[in-house]
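README, section 4: Worked example with a bound small molecule

Sections 1 through 3 covered apo chains. Here we extend the same pipeline to holo records, where the ligand is supplied as SMILES alongside the sequence. The molecule in this example is thiamine diphosphate. Nothing else about the input changes; the structure line simply encodes the ligand pose together with the chain.
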Amino acid sequence: MTPLDETTFLTGANAGFIAELHVRYLADPNSVDASWRGFFAALADPPESVTREIAGPGWGEARPRIIGNGHLAAPAIELPKTLPPDLHRAALDSIRAVALIRGFRVRGHLIANLDPLGLSGLASHPDLEPATYGFTEADLDRPIFINDLLGFQTASLREIVAALKAIYCGNVGVEYMHIQGLEERRWIQARIEVPRNQTEFTPEGKRAILERLTAAEQLERFLDRRYTGTKRFGLEGAEALIPALEQVIKRGGQLGMKELVIGMPHRGRLNVLTNVMGKPFAALFSEFQGNPANPEDVQGSGDVKYHLGTSTDRDIGEIRMHLSLTANPSHLEAVNPVVLGKVRAKQRQRGDTACDEVVGLLMHGDAAFAGQGLVHESLELSGLKGYRTGGTIHVVVNNQIGFTTSPSQARSSPYPTDVAKGNQAPIFHVNGDDAEAVVHVTRIATEFRHRFKQDVVVDIFCYRRHGHNEADEPAFTQPLMYRAIASHPTVREVYAGRLVGEGLLTAAEVDAVTTDFLARLERDFETAKNYRPNKADWLEGAWSGLAVASGDERRGETAVATELLHEVGAALTRVPEGFHLNPKIARQLEQKRQSIERGEGIDWATAEALAIGTLCAEGTFVRLSGQDSCRGTFSQRHAVLVDQENEQRFVPLNHVRDGQAQFEVLDSPLSEAAVLGFEYGYSLAEPHALVMWEAQFGDFANGAQAIIDQFIASGEAKWLRMSGLTMLLPHGYEGQGPEHSSARLERYLALCGEDNIQVCNLTTSANYFHALRRQVRRDFRKPLIVMTPKSLLRAPEVATPLSEMGPGTSFHRLIHEIDPIAPAAKVRRVVLCSGKVYFDLAKARREKKIDDIAILRLEQLYPFPARSFAQMLAGYPNAELVWCQEEPENAGAWSFLDRRIEKALATIDIKMKRARYVGRPEAAATATGLMRRHNAEQARLVGAALAA
Ligand SMILES: Cc1ncc(C[n+]2csc(CCOP(=O)(O)OP(=O)(O)O)c2C)c(N)n1
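The generated complex, written as structure tokens:
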């Protein structure tokens, strides 16, 4: 199209195109076609008037204006010219200035000087250009009335822009205008605008920052010299992290913090462990020499240095601060919910309902923070009843790389921290080369968290001086970045230069700081040669009095006096005067009341309530969290009753007796990993509570697989940290399809080893009662995985008499034959099974009048009760053994039990040597989605188990 022979081209629809051409033409006339060149030359108009013309008449729809670099900007602010000219101009100036100030508050961070390498970031943005708001060069020095904004009454445009740049575009970029709360925004504004977003540090403060930077830098160098090529995931490039953490501790302490629970990834961990947590350098050096972190006689598989946790007390002036760094797996960000759960448990222990005393601090890598979904899941917990911890301080070590991946491939969002915006967290981006700025924003972040009890993020823009680990060559993938890094001074050098420049220290004094620290490292290096850890710390503090698990049966004291069972039963069915109970629930409660009174037919949910209620009455706090756990997925629990008139909620088990412990039951957000991780963390900090997590269906628990594999199954072995967490996994092969049938028993069994967890599939409500109580009525803690039932919840066969929970009763790992069948010697087959299939088998056996097949139930699959099992089977000298399961052959307990059964049978003199498999054939999906097929399969497997 040539412009001049086309009469219709000057339409609004073409405005953007033409304006863009015009802008290009103005920048370089030769960059547009010759005919356009002629056209624009003929117009000879200033660009703005042209674009306004093209955009259509003034009464038409407002169109975006294209400025300078091609960005779209809002139309400049205009006022109707009905005011006297002076007033008109003054009003217009003020309005434009306010809009400009707002532009900086919202987007100033975009042009802040954040990247120490100067490789990323924008030079300008239209929202930050005075021209965008209608100002011209001529307006620069005219006084503008802005009434106290930025601390000015009146100021010139020049002064306003200078102030805005200092506040919002220096070495700190603040994102806070997304926060909905006016008070929070105003607080941040006041905190940063008046002091121009900087802290005036005292000479002592400056020296302390230099010392911390020196310690951070020199430790890494020392390790590099002494253990060249050993992985340490050094902090170099992000040394400002260390004074920043120091600031959290110091300022936090002044504000009433007594305990800081920390979670962090590999990067810089050794530095944090020693330089912040106070772990002796000698201990670290000893680990580098290949010695274990714990005494040799302590069991456990150990873990690499950069996963280990520790806890210490540090005295900060008058204040004693307890610091604990949570052990974590390699799985980045997996530790986040664990830390949050620990914080919550510790807050409860201290009665810190205001969340002032115990604070969580999480560190993150930029790639991991942006990439891992668990970050979002964990952030979502922050405001929720039952999970809130009064806000977490997040510090991102934003070294602008993830292993070898550049930010452009690591995320779509502008910043790695954008996920926290949904949480209304203010985000302080800061140039990691400006250590004072880093400490300054960390102080504000600590204050913000204290003041508003909300999450807050400090994003330290920095770089990674070496490869992902010290053996990697980063120039393979980021040659330009690494060329820039090679000639870039260290953070300490930058800061030391600044202090020398300010005249605070001489070069010799700076060097002395380094040599003093190095001398200390050398001394500790010598000590390390003889360093021996003298004790493991795992049974200290809240854990003192507990012991390492031992013994076979481990029943614990789980029986309860009959009077207490009745006391809890009465409370369970009691509602306050005037409470409008749903009539269906009223009927259910009445049935419960009758069954407890009769002492017969205690169903699954009632047994659970009795276990919880008796524990609470005895003073043990109980926490149950999961999706819809208050009611129960299958409407069986009703732990929380809802008034039908006003929706007030009532938890009967919190009204058993005066002075009882609380039952905290919570509907969790729809997350598996974060909530399970949280409860695991809770259980780490609180051994004297029964902490339960419930899956909606067991099928969904694999959304939390990393928490299960990396923490629950292996935490004790790796880090000497016990947990008594209980996982309830509702399931049932009942024709509901592949994702509503299996709790993936096989997964948990595959994880079993070294007495790490307990896996149960229970068939009586009394056994469930004892299994739950057993968790907190023994002197050790182990995670418990319970395959909980669905249809069996209401099955009369599962219900037991109250007396089975009363005096003299306990948990049973195996349940013997209970039907009257032929004498054991005449039994031709023993069918061993676990869970619901038992009832199908027993029913079919009764219907077929078979009396020479015994059916035994394995209630606890792990630890496998080998001795009891062998003793039980020894009673059937002439029988063959069948293992019957509902799951496909490649699932369920078969693969796990096969060899264990064989081994146990080898210990007795008996005909049967191994078990024969009866169950569904192997399958890719856990179950069929077709009810008819399910029924046929089920009938077939039950038939096969009982066949002649
Ligand atoms: C969940 C998970 N996936 C993958 C890895 C492998 N991995 C280890 S470090 C790393 C890069 C992390 O980058 P970033 O979060 O930016 O931290 P940095 O190492 O740069 O400090 C990756 C992908 C891991 N540890 N965890």
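What to look for in the output: The first strand starts at residue 65 and ends at 66. Residues 267, 330-332, 365-368, 372, 397, 399, 401-403, 464, 468 surround thiamine diphosphate (CB under 6 Å).

Section 5 describes how to batch many such records.
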